[in-house]
Every structure is written in C-alpha cells, then in structure tokens.
Amino acid sequence: MHETNKLDRPADSELLSFWVNGQEYTIDVMFVRELRGWSKSTPLPHAPDFVHGVINLRGTILTVLDLACRLGLRPINATERNVIIVAEIQGEIVGLLVDRVSDIFSIPTNSQQALPDIGSGSGQRFVTAILTIEDRLIRVLDLNAIVNVDAANAA
Amino acid sequence: MSLNILAVDDSRTMRDMLNLALGQAGFTTHLAEDGEHGLKVLTQLAPDAIITDINMPNLDGFGFIDAVRKQQKHRGIPILVLTTESAPELRARARKAGATGWIVKPFDPTKLVQAITKVAG
Amino acid sequence: MSASIAEIRDSFFQECTSHLEALQDGLSEIENGTANEETIHEVFRAVHSIKGGAAAFDIVTLVKLAHRFETALEAVRSKQATPDKKAVKLFLRACDLLGDLLRLAGTENTEEPEGFRTCLSELDAYIQNNAESPVKSKSTEKAASNAQDREITSVGIQQAEPIFDIIFEPNSEIFPSGNEPLYVLKSLYELGHVTVTCDTSKIPCLSDLNPETSYLSWKVELLTTCDLDEVREVFDFVEDLCVLNISERQQAHSHTPNLDLRSNRVTEPDSNAEQQPAEPFQITQPDALSRQSSVKASAEKARFESRPPEEITAPAAKPTVRVDLDRVDLLVNQIGELVINQAVLAQSIATTGLNKDASIFAALEDFSQLASDLQDSVMMIRAQPVKTLFQRMARVVRETSRTTQKDVRLLTEGESTEIDKTVIEGLFDPLTHIIRNAIDHGIECPAERSECGKPEIGEIHLTARHKSGRVTIEISDDGRGINRSEILRKAKETGLVDQSAKLSISEVDNLLFLPGFSSSNSISNVSGRGVGLDIVRNSIAAMGGRIFVTTTEMKGTVFNIDLPLTLAVQDGLVVEVSHNTHVIPLSNIVETLILKNSDIHLFGSSTKMIKIRDKFLPIIDLGAALGYRKRKSHFDGCIVLLIAQEENYFALIVDTIIEQRQVVIKALQNNIGTCPGVSGATILGDGKIALILDPIDIVKTTAPQNRFRKEEFSLAG
After folding, report:
1. What's C666's DSSP letter?
2. Which of A20, A25, B71, C29 has its CA 20 to 30 A from that of B22?
3. Can you name the residues that pair with C656 across neighbouring β-strands?
4. Between these two residues, A36 and C281, which has the higher pLDDT value?
5. How crowded is residue C499: how many other Cβ atoms within 10 Å of its Cβ?
6. pLDDT tens readout for residues C279-302
7. Taking all residues of chain B, what is their mean pLDDT, rounded to a whole number?
8. C656 and C508 in one domain?
9. Are residues C340 and C475 both part of a single domain?
10. Which pLDDT score is estimated for A69?
C-alpha cells in the first residue's frame, strides 16, 4: 500500500498522504508515530465537536480528533476501516481520524506549490501548500493549526 | 605507581572534596566515615598515608590515631589530621595522640598535596 | 570518576539538611531535658560539619554564624554544663538561621536574613561569658610566632637569592610520629638548589642500634627565592621533634655564587668548612635512611608479638541512593501501566472459557498479587517521614510564639509516618496557617490562661498516622476554642447561612471553611485576617484530601486532615451513566442512596429536590449534565450519590454503581483544552477508558435548570 515514488531529483522529505472526505491531504512522516485501525473510543463530554474521543494506546490516553470535522467538513462516521494517524505535534501525541491512508512518497521540499488564492472555505487555514503529484491535487496539512485551538475555533 | 591514601571524615562533602583533590593529584583514595570504619578499612589495606578528621561519631580522630598506632603493622604510618585552626594547643594535642602532621580546613589542594609529600614521599 | 565541584556542592546542601535535622533533634532533647552525654557532641558535630563545608565553598555568612555557633557549643561541651533556657532558645534561633542561610546560599543569594546580626552578637556575648580561657585570635598568635622567628634570622632580608643554612637533627620521637626525614628533606629540593651534608657520626654499632631512633642529622644549604616562612613550613610537622636551626646567610652584591646546574651544588670562593663535597653522602644518605627504615620494619616484626588485627565492624548506617525524582515518577507510571496491563490480561484469559482449574488461573492470581505488591512498594519510594514537616512546624511555633509573646510548645507524634513527598510539600502552607491561627487566636496569653486554671505554656499537638490506606493528620490546641454562637451569628450576618437555618454542631464548626469568613474582629498581623481556612480546605482538596474541625469552648480546637497516601492513585466509585463508565473520587462522596418516590419533592414548576434527613438537596442528573441524554423526569429507584460541596450537598444521579476501587490516575492531554467536569482518566481491567469526574466542577457548570437555587432552599427551610 505504501509505494515509494521516486522522482528524478534527490528527495528532501517523505510525506504520508491520506483521504478525508474525498480530499487528499499529506503530512511529513517525521510527525507520524504510528498508524492504527479505528477502535471504539470514549467520548469526552462537552468537548468541541471535532474531538472524536479518547482511546487507550497501550496505557496512554490518546485524544483522537475527527479530522474531517476539524477541517469544516462532515464528521466521519467511523468504522473499523477508518485509520487513526498517531502524530506527535508540539511535543504532544494526538490521534487524527481519517478515511484511509494512501501513499508515502518522497519529494524535494521546494516542489511544494504556494497556495493559490482561491479564497475558499474554512479548510483554507489548515493548508500550507498544494502539491501536484501525477495529476492528483494533494493538500499539505498544517498540523500546528490543527491542534491550536483558540476561542474562535472552540465549540 | 600512585600512593594510596585513606581519608577518614564523617562529612560526605569533605570526603568528596578530598577524593577530588587527591585524585587530581594522582593519588588513589580510599574513604571511611569515622574512626571505626577507618580501622575496618585498615584491616584490608596498608595505605601510604592517612588523613583523618577529629570530630567524628563512633570513634573520633584522636581515638582512631591512638588505635592505629597501637597496631604494630601501622605504627609508623604517616597520619595527617584535619583541623579547623592551626592553634598550638590543637597541634600539641594531635602530636600527643600520635599525629604526624596536620592540614587546616578548609584545605588548599596544593597544601594538601604538599603535606602528603612531606610525610609520604 | 570523582564528582565535579558543582555536584559536590549540591550534595553538600543535601547533606546539610540532615545535619540541620540532627541539630534540631539534639536541641529539642536538650530543651526537654531528655538529652544525654552524647547529645551535645552530636549537636556540636552537626554545626562543625556545616561550618566545614561552608568554609570550603566560601559561603561567608554561613561561616560567620556557624563558627560562632560552634565556639559557643564548644564552650558548652567543654564545661559539660547544660545550657539554660535562654541559651537553648538562642541556639534554636541560630539553628533556624543556619537553615535560612543554607536556603539562601542554595540560590546564590548573599543577603543577610532577618535577625542575623542580632544572633551573631548574642552568640558572641554567650561565648565571652562562658569561655574558660580568653578567646585568642589566630592572627595575633601567628604574628607572635613570626616575631620569634625573625629574631633568629639576621636583620635585613635581601632581595637577591639568599642562602639558608639549615641544621636538622631529628630526635627519637620522629619515627613514632610517622614522619620520615627523607621526605622532609626531599621537600626542600622543591624550593631551590640544595646541598646536603649528613652527619653519621652518632650511629652506634649494630648491636646497640635502636631502629626506632634517629641517629642522623643534616646540614643543608638551600639556595632559593623563597622566604624564611616558606622554608620553615617544610619542617612544619617535625619542628617539635628535632633540633632545627634555619639561618639566612646574606649575600654581598659583588658576591655571586657559582651555580653549577649539573651537580646542583653551589660553590663559593670562601666556602666554609661544612661545605664539604657532599656527593658521597648525597648518594648514601637516602640509602642509609631507607636501610634504616627497612631495618626498622623488620625489627618491628621481630620485636613485637604479632597481634591479630582487631575486628571492628563499620557503623550500621543505612545505605541510601540518591535518585532523580523524574526517574521515580517514570517508574510509578510504568508500574501503573503494568498493573493495568495485568488486569487486561486477566480479563482476556477469563473470557477464553478455559477450565477454571487450569493452572493458568493460579499463575494469574500470583501475577495479580505480585503486580499489586510491586505497585505498593513503588508508591512508597516517594514517601518520606513527616518528620521534616513537623520540624518546620516546630519552627513556625517558635516564631509565632515570639511574635505574639505567648509561650507555646509543640508536641508531636508519629513523625516517622510516611507520606508521598509531594503531599508533604503540599501540607506545609495549610499546616503553617492552621498553627499560626491556633497560636494567634486560639491560645490565650499566659495571664488569661492562669486565670482559667490552664498551665501558662500553651500546647499544640501534631500527630500523623496511617489508617486503612490513608493518612490522618491532627492538629489540636488547648486554647479557648472557637465561640460557636459567634460563628453562627457572623455567618448569618454576612448571608453565608440563612437566618432561619438550623445547623448541627459540626456544621457550625465547619462553617469556618467558607470563603470570606472571619470570626476575628481585629486584623491580626500574624495570620492575616483569619480568612484563610477556605484556602486551606482547597489545598487539601486539591491533594484529594478532606479537612474537618471540631471545637470545644474553653478547651481547644482540633483540625483533622485526611489524605491519600499518594497522588497517583485515587479511591473511586466506578459508576455507569448512559452506558458510559465513569469514576467519581470517593473523597467527594458522602453517601449513596436509592431514591424512593416519597423522597422527591417538587418546588416551583419544574425543580425537583430530594429530602434527606430534614434537608432538601437539589438533584443533578449526571447523564444530562454530561450531555449524554435529556434530563430524567422520573427518579424513583434511581441511584444517587451525595456530593459535598463545602457546606452544600447535591444529589448526583447515576445509572449503576459498578464497584469501588483504587484507580491509577492518567492525565488527559491538554492540547485540545480541558473538559469541564473531567479531571483525568483511568484504564479499567477490560482496557476501556473511564473518565474520572470532578463532581464539584460538574455541579458548578451544570446548566441552571439543573441547579440549586438559593431562594428555593430558603422556601424549603
């Protein structure tokens, strides 16, 4: 499932790509701790709606975020086929609930295209750049923006 | 071949400092916490010199030196006492107890080495 | 590998805490009259050790105090007299100041703490009054001896390289003292150019030779840039064991010695008779000495009967190891996870349907027991005896007594009781506050006490003990107690309690913990405005503990603090609410009940309350409060937990009570903000997560229609 696409030029970063609600996103693998299949999580009462719940990760309580919801899309109706990406962001571990994981590929960092000013919806502020790989439009996710919750974003 | 020094002091800090200074000067240091412990170490070790504090629990410096001098194996061993002042009464008392020389606390590492050289070579 | 100076300094400060402890113990014993002979020595040694280290690290203020303190104690020690009450108080103050100075020094702060100068001069006064011989200063002594030396040497020290003529004749005492003339002479070589002549004329024939006596003497010519004192210093240890003569020979300017660097000899045109070619003796002299030494050694063997070395056992000091607190915390966490894992394993195996007699179950049980024991042991690693806490309280008592001019004694019990280090630290402020209050407001001044027939010295009892997995701390005083009617009056006046409310005795007493409460009409400097007890209760609650007070007028007041042994685990009630499992800390729960329809009363249009023993309590549906369901309308047969929030009670509805157990607290990640009402989480035996709730928080944040309204309470009144 994880093919490595090598391009002509020497690689600078390795990226993991995944699907959320029909859109493809990607993050640098250095943030990824592990990938887990979805298992029923414990809900957190009165938490923002993008907080899917908490799961037991070998004795640690892992907070799982519904990435679709966080991006302003429809919340995920999770089943065993969904994937939780366990990521380490800003020194803390958090789980990201996505539809499925697709690829790992290497690209030179400077091939990331700056974000065109489309002026679209709320998902915009979580994307730092757009990649074009084999005619696929892949959005580079800003993990810091995902986890930084301020008053405006909180439910 | 470095000289073996036995340092006896109930203060851990003092032991650490002696260990540091002596080690840096190339001596091999052995440590004991008080007179009784020092005597026990001496059953296993014949050091080239002994440095001892006076005020210690269980067996104080004077008692320790006295006991050491009574042992034929260690009769002539150089023993330096750590004193806080170089008052003549203290020196006289130390001499009477059988001390070879003295080191004033807090000790200057150079003087410490000098003292050891004067008595143990 | 020897430790660096910084590490030794750190370990010095740590060592000093045990010295201070020993010092305080000893002084307390002297104060109580329970001291023995050894006590004053222990006290002296403690101060002596602190002084030694302080001098080594150049902590000036500490050295100043420690030195005087030591001298004062030496006066006591040598006189073998017991210091009087005033002296003991002085010593205790000095002890407290030593503690302050050490704390300041630890942060590289060189300022002088309050009372420092006063204590110094008081110690000086004590020394003057009690010293057996006039205290001589070192400097005058040294000057005197220097003056003596100067008489020997010729007048006018020359800047050009002088020559010292040294005559060194060791006596019979030199070898028994452990000194070795060879090494002394060798040290001279370090100072400059040396020419040595040995006089062997006194060596008797072998049969008369006593190997322990020195028969040799030496004349040395030393060419050096060092001064007389430095030359003299070489002979420091043997000065009293020999005939020593050091004279400085003047060099005329035109007179330059011929320095023959190869042979380390100085030849002078007009050399005196003593300066004979020394080579033969230079070579043989060390040999003569070493021969003499070896002769001495073998003679020793022959002359003295061998005695078996005495068997001395080392002191039975408890060996300790210093460990980073982080490592301990990590260990505590890992053990917690092991316990959880073991529970998960047990559960999985139970569901496999294996024959109950299978040996696997016996092994599992053993595993369970082992894991549990392991957890207990690890939990106690961070545990420390409360003794240090009690000693600090003793100091609080001393200081507060001084400032309020009352005479108060602290009696302690159970100081070896062990509690988690963080809990001990968390108790410092609350206990200080309670004790200050007790002395300031509780204990009467001596005159008033005698009038009541009480002894003039007030007493505060501080006890600690373990009880069924928890720790109980009790602080009681024998003061005037708290005027109950006054409390009630004040509470009603400020509206904290309703005018017509009827409260039980203990309810009135515990009103003291309400915020904004002060029974003191005057503002006292010591304990602030007497309003701190609510903060005290919060601090205790934050550690998972509870505090109660009982007072008896004219007799005194007792504070009871109940605490968990450690903060990493909590006793909780595992409950189910809307198919979700949660844990409610036991310390919040007063009682559990099953509701009957007859308990439920309607107020206003929609507010239902339950009546329990003449009190009306609001009902909160936990399922609704957590957002799992809409509020229940029928409560018949529901299980209710009575939650205490300060003086208010609430009834919390849950679906089922599963069990009561100890849970390992796991923190929730903070990155997505905290959830109201949730204080943490734990992992149950089946691997499922159960959120640990904070019922007080839930009550506070629950939507108004679920909340208690004060007017309705008074209506029900």
Report:
1. B
2. B71
3. C576
4. A36
5. 9
6. 333 333 333 333 333 334 333 333
7. 86
8. no
9. no
10. 92
Q: In chain A, what is the straight-line distance between the N-terminal and C-terminal CA atoms, in Å? A: 36
Neighbour subunits, C (≥3 Cβ pairs < 8 A): A, B
How many whole angstroms separate alpha carbon C625 and alpha carbon C618? Answer: 13
User: In terms of DSSP bridges, do strands B49-53 and B79-83 run parallel, antiparallel, or are they unpaired?
Assistant: parallel
Is the residue at A114 inside a domain? Answer: yes
Most confident segment among B103-112, C126-135, C328-337: B103-112
How far is residue C108's CA from residue C112's CA, in Å, rounded to a whole number?
12
At how many degrees (to 10) do helices C5-32 and C387-404 cross? 60
Complex-level ipTM? 0.87
Cα distances from A25 to residues A104, A110, A120, A138, A139, in angstroms, run 11, 17, 16, 5, 5
How confident is residue B29, by pLDDT bands cut at 50, 70 and 90?
very high
Percent of chain B exceeding pLDDT 90 equals: 27
pLDDT average, residue stretch B14-29: 88
pLDDT at B20: 85
Number of H helices and number of E strands within chain C?
20, 24
The length of chain A is 155
Q: Residue A35's CB: how many other CB atoms inside 10 A? A: 14
Do the domain assignments include residue A153?
A: no
CA angle A13–A14–A16, rounded 5-degree value? 140
Tokens of C526: 């010591």
Cα dihedral C436, C441, C443, C445 sign: positive
* Residue A42 in this model has a pLDDT that exceeds 50: yes
Q: How many CB pairs under 8 A join A and C?
A: 74
Q: Do B55 and C182 touch (CB under 8 A)?
A: no
Q: Which chains touch A (3+ CB pairs under 8 A)? A: C
**Beta carbons within 10 angstroms of residue B115's beta carbon:** 25
Residue with tokens 């002479």: C185
CA nearest C145 in B: which residue?
B88
**Distance, CA of A145 to CA of A142 (rounded, Å):** 5
The residue among C564, C599, C618 that closes a domain is: C564
Per CB-CB distance under 8 Å, the chain B contacts of C312 are: 36-37, 39-40, 43
Find the CATH number of the domain harbouring C458. 3.30.565.10
| A152 lies in some domain | no
Task: Report the pLDDT value the prediction gives residue A66, as an integer from 0 to 100.
Answer: 94
C356/C362 Cα distance (integer angstroms): 9
Domain count, chain C: 5
Which of C671, C691, C698 best probes binding to A when mutated, by most A CB atoms within 10 angstroms? C671
Full domain range(s) for residue C127: 2-148
Token look-up 């679709």 returns A68
Residue carrying the six token digits 């340092």: B7
Q: Which of A9-18, A130-139, C401-410 ranks highest by mean pLDDT?
A: C401-410
Domain boundary among C125, C148, C171: C148
- The pLDDT assigned to A137 comes to 86
**CA proximity to C497, closest of C474, C476, C514:** C514
Both C125 and C169 in one domain: the answer is no
Asked if the structure places residue A8 within a domain, the reply is yes
B96/C contact by beta carbon, under 8 A: no
